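Aim 2, interim progress. The first record below pairs a target sequence with its structure tokens.
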Amino acid sequence: MARGDPRDTAGNPTNYFAVTKTDVSDACVDFLHTQMTNKEYIDAMIKAGEVPAIADLGDRLDQHPNPAFAKAVYEIAQTAPSFTLSWDQALPSNIGDAVVTNLQKVFNKQIQPADWVAAMKNAN
């Protein structure tokens, strides 16, 4: 049996964006780069309890409401050999919505796991 690397991570990062190729994609990338690297924006995210997707945050995470937690999350992200988005984040929104809606129904015992599988086969 193949085993995974326990350092691999999955989840929902803060403020990672994808820009599709359009006639304004360069402007979108420039805006996001300017916004995401703006000191005031990063400091506001840290103060709000987020761990920004920015390299070399260093001591700035000391300003986080929970610095130990923020630094642990940051270290995990920096040292992970791979990162996988949560299913609902990695899928088109109509299918991602079906994933979380029907998963909630499973946890609320409104449908059986087999019903979740059927719902996923029918999602479009």
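The second target in this work package is listed in the same format:
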Amino acid sequence: MPKRTGAGALLALAVTGFALGATLATPANAAAKAPGFLTTADLPPHPSSAWTAGEVTSGVPEAVEQDRCLSMALGGGGSDTWYREFRTDHDTSARQVSVQLSTTAAAKGRFSRLNKDITSCAARIEKADPETEATLKDYGTLPVEEGAHVYGLHTVTLQGASDIRLLSVGRDGRTVTVVDWGQLGGFGDAPVKAFEQTTVTAVNKLH
């Protein structure tokens, strides 16, 4: 497999082995506060592999702590943050991270911060690694609960590795969720419509 130094590499880091996040978090054993999460049936279908899901776990995985798009708003986790990892037998992987804030105003602020961080992360990727070219595409908003926004991020390295990533941010009341999907490829390989439906499902499951 080509060297993965693009945006999708951070997503694949945690999903390749669910144990990576285990050192930072523990399973949310039927925690009453945990919001609803996506299941494998809710994700964009993979043409040749079934999805496998990890447990809903409290905190954030290591890959999010290192992610240039999400770490500033989600890094550090906390007792009111949960995540679930998904993977296939191939190069496609996904993750959902949800955080419950103390007030609706705080949730609005976190939602706004995540959108700003995602829209600016392509520039941060290129600044941190001049050998990587990053391009962000804004797919717009979705009319679900208090709103959701979908983005695409394509990275190409000097060595030729090409990664495509879809990210979405949604909010329902005091809860904000981020859905993150990635694989090798470009914008043409991204299942945008299916991912939009996944995002709508993720937000609807928060309550």
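Strands lie at 52-53, 57-58, 81-87, 93-100, 132-142, 148-157, 162-172, 175-184. This observation will shape the mutagenesis plan for the next reporting period.
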